[in-house]
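Researcher: Last one for today. Full complex below.
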Amino acid sequence: APWDKLPDAEVEQILDAKFAEGKYSNKGADGCLMCHKKSDDVMAIFKGVHGSTASSKSPMAGLQCEACHGPQGKHNKGGKEPMIQFGADAPIPAAKQNSVCLSCHQDGERMAWHSSTHNLEEVACASCHKVHVDKDPILDRVTEVAACTACHSRQKADMNKRSSHPLKWADMSCTDCHNPHGSMSEAALNQVSVNDNCYQCHAEKRGPFLWEHAPVTEDCSLCHNPHGSVNEGMLSNRAPQLCQQCHTNPHSGNSINGQPSVFTSGQSCLNCHSQIHGSNHPAGKALQR
Amino acid sequence: GGYSIQDANLDKVNTDKWSCKRCVVEYGAHGSVGVAAGTVDSDNERSANYFGAEDGAFGAFNSDLKYSAESGYGAALEARNLGMDNGEARLSAGHGDTWNLALEYGKLVTVKNDHAQSNYSVVGNGWVAGELQEQTLESERERYGAELSVGGEMWQTYANFRREDKSGLTKASIWGGTPTNVAKPVDSSTDTWEAGVKLQGERWFTQLAYLASSYDNKVDVLNFGAVPGAYQDAPDNDAYQVMANGYYSFGRTQVAGRVSSGEMTQDQDLLLVNNGLAGFDGKIETLDANLKLTSLVTSALRLTASVDYSERDNSSDILVTELALDPNSGNAAEYQAYDVDRTTYKLGASYRIARGYRVDLGYDRKEVTRSAQDREDTTDDAVWGRVRVTAFDAWDIALKGGFSSRDGSTYTVTGNNNDLMRRYNVADRDRSEVELRLSHTPLDRLTVDLSGYYALDDYDNSEVGLTEAEDYGFDATLAFQHTERFNTHLFFGKQWIFSEQSGSVSGPANWEAKVEDEFEHFGLGFTYSGLMAEKLVLGGDYVYADSNSDTTAGFSEYDGYFATSYNLNLYGAYAINPALSLRLDYRFERYEDADYAAVEQDTLSNLVTLGDLNSDYNAHMVMLSVNYKL
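Model: Here's the assembly. Have a good evening.
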C-alpha cells in the first residue's frame, strides 16, 4: 500500500485523526468495492458471517466495510490515505486493532481477554483469525493445533513425546482445555480448576473416594504433565522414583536398583498400590484394591 | 484509545445512499462433501492412533457443507473421518440472531498396546484364569452432544448436554499373594449438562451458569479367582457447580470477576468386609472466587492485578462400627479428610519505554493451607521480568527471567516416613528460570523462530526426597516460501530434564537416584501447488521424535527406556474439474519403544506381568478421497 513506507507511528496518527473526525463515505460498501471487488480476498468476506446482510449483528448490516476499517475520509481520492488494517504485520498496535473486534465480541468467551496472556503479549485477533473467508481456519481443529504450536513450541515438543494427549493428530485440540482469549482460571483453562478440567474426560478420578491420595485431590499436575512426557502416563517422573520422592518409610525408603524385581517391573509400586488415584474399598487405605 | 464502534464518531454518518448493490452475499448451499476409502497394513494396532484405522480396509465420510438463506436461517454439516476409529460430525441449524441448535457425535479410539499377555480375563464379575492369551489394551470413547441457544439483542440462554461412553481394557494390578498385573474392563458413561443465561450491554457482560456431571461406572467390584472383592473399581459420582461471572469496562480500565460454588458427591454402597467401615457418603464442597483488574493508566503503562481464591472442603460422612485396622501395619486405619484452601495474588506492570521497546514486571504470591498433610501452610513468592524489543525491522526479541521461592509453616513428617523426608509439593523450593525468544524475518519469504529456556528447581532444605530438578532446551522453526507455489517448513528441538533425589529409611540420606530425560524431535514439510496447469497440489510432512530416559539409583543403572517414532504423510490432490477433486494419501509410521519394566510373564517368581509390552513395527496406510464442491 502507498502508506507502507510511512513510519508506523505516523500511520497510527493519521488513523487516530480520521477515526475522531468520523468522515464516513457516502456510498458505504458500494464505494469501496468499486476498486476492491477485483480482489478475491476482499470479496470472500461475503462467504462468511461478517459479510452477511441477513444478521443484524453483522458489520455488513451496519457500517459495512467502514465498521472495521474505519471512516473512509480521503482514502477514495487515489487510495493514498491509510485505512485500519489488521494482522501481525499491520502498522497499528494490536490493542487498537483488537478494539475493533471487541466492539461486538465482548461476551462470555472473551470476558477475561484484557487480563489474558495473549492481550498482554500484544497478540492481534487477526494474527490467528481470518474474517474475509468462508470459514475461519483456526476454528478447524487441525489448523488450530498448528497455529497454537507455531508460537507454543515447547507444547509442540511435548505432544510428540512418548506419552501425550492425542493432539499430534488433532484428535484433541488446545481449546478442549484452554481458552486462547483468557479465562478466569489459571493457565486460561476452560474449567474452574486444573482438576475440574481433567475431570471433563476423566470423571472416574473425581471421587470423592473413601481413601484419598492427598496430592491427587489437590492438583493432577503435581505428578502429570498434561502436555506430554518422555514417561508413560504423562508422568513427570515414573515409579518407583516418583513415589520415593514422597514416601520413605521402612517399606518404601530403600534404594531400588535397576534389576528386574517386583519394585521395578510390571507396574512398579502400582503392582500392589494400583488404586493410586483413590480407593473405595473399605480395606483400601493403602490404595491396594 | 482504540477504534471500537462504541467510540466511533457517528455524527456525520449518512447511510441514505448505502445500498450494498455490489455486495455478493452467497445464499444457498455451498461447501464440500467427500468420501474416502483406504487400507492399512500393520502388524501392531498401536498404529491406529496415527492412522485412525486398524489393519485392513476402511471408509470415511467428510463434509464441510453450509446452507444460508436470505431470511437469516442457516445450517451446517461438518464431518471429519466419520466412520473411522477417530472421527466426528456436527450438524447445526438456526437463525444467527435468535436461536441455534446443534447435534454432535464423536469417536476416539486409543490403542495403548495390542499384545498384553494374561491368563486372566473377566467373566461376569471377576477375573477367571485360563489359557495365556493376547489382549489389547485400548479405550474407545464415543460422545453424543446436543446444544440449544435462544437469544435476543442483549440476552442469550443456552442448554447443552453431552454423553460420553467409554469402553475397553486398561492396565490394573491385583494385590495379595503374588501381585498380578491384569487387563481391567472399562465400561462407563459420563453425562454433562450445562445451562445458563447471559446478559450484555456495550460495556458489560454477566452470566449465570449451572454445570453438572454424572459418572456412571458399570464395572463395580471384581473378584480375582477365588478371592472376593479383590478389586474395587471407581465408584459412581456426581458433581455440580453454580457460577456467576461478570465484566465491566470503564474505558481504560476493565474488571472481571467470577464466583463458583459446587459439590462433588459419591454415595456408592461399601463392600462389606467386616472391618468396621459400614458406610460412606462422600461430599466435597468447593468455592472458587476471583477478580481480575487491568488498567491502561497511560498509553505506555498497563497495570494488572488479580486475586484468586479456591476452597476444597471435605465434608464426607463415614459410618464406623468398630476400629478398622490397616492390613499392612496393623495400625488403626483412620479416615483422613483432606481440605485445601488456596489464595493467589498477582500484580503486574507493562511499560512501553519507546515504540518497539517494552518491559514487563510482575509479582505473584500463592498461599495454600492444607489439612492432614506434612505442612499446614505454604507460601510461594515469585518475581519475574521481561524485555521485548520489536523496534528493529525483521526482529522480535524477548528475554524473560523469573525467581520464585516457596516456604511455609513448621514441617511435621506424617506416617512412618523418615523424619528428614520433605515431600516435593510442600517442601521449601527455589525456582529460577530464564527464556529467550527470537523471531527473525531476513527475507519476506523466510521466517526463523528460535527459543531457548533454562529452569532450575532447588529443594535446598530437603535432605531426603527430591533435591534438585533442571529443565532446559531449545526449539527452532524455519518457514520458507520459496515461490508463490512452493513452500517448506522445518523444525527441530532438544530438551533435557534432570532430577536428583535422596533416600533413606531413617536418618541422613544413604542413597541417591538420578533421572536424565532427553527428548529430541525434527520435522520437515512442504506443499507445491499449481502443478499441471493449476490442477495438482503435492504435499508432505515428516516428523521424527525420540524420548529417552536414563535412571541411575545408587550405583545401579536401569535398562533402556525410550520411544522413537518416524511419521510420514505424502499426498497429491488433483482437480478433475472445478467441482470434483481426488486426493491420494500415503502414510507411514515406524515406531519402536523399550521399557525395562516390561518383562516377560515368567521373569519373576513373585510378580505376574502382562508380558513384554514393548513395540517395534512399521505400518503403512493408503487412502483415496473423492471430494465434491457445491
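The two ends of chain B are 44 Å apart (CA to CA). The mean pLDDT of chain B is 95.
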